[in-house]
Description:
Elements: E1 43-46, E2 50-55, E3 58-63, E4 66-71, E5 75-82, E6 88-95, E7 100-106, H1 112-127
Antiparallel strand pairs: 1-2, 2-3, 3-4, 5-6, 6-7
Amino acid sequence: MTDQPPPPPAVPPGFGPPPPSFAPGQAPYVQGPPQPPAPGPEFLAVDKHNSVVVDVSGVAFEMYDITVEFPWPEIRSVHYKASPNGKALMVAVVHVDGRVYECVVNAKPRELLQGWFAQLAWVLGYYRPTG
């Protein structure tokens, strides 16, 4: 009998020393920086002083150079209608805490309003489907 140590046990795949191509200090799986959300449809209504934007981020109102942004997680609902005289788009955002914010954008020519309604309905349906 010889006094030799027993052979080392077989190492299951995935265990043991790193392969020769592995450089110290280099992670074998590197995750890159977070990527922005995939682009989706956008809605934009704008006049001389005001604008409404609906996109992947949420809803934004600009009124006389003041911008207010509402990310989707902060929005309970979005409502829109024509102004009483039929010349403007009225959009309201209901915040999750119940506060309501409104923006009015004049439609010139007036026929633009119907196009805005169709596009806004489609974009809101994309981001906030009902049912």
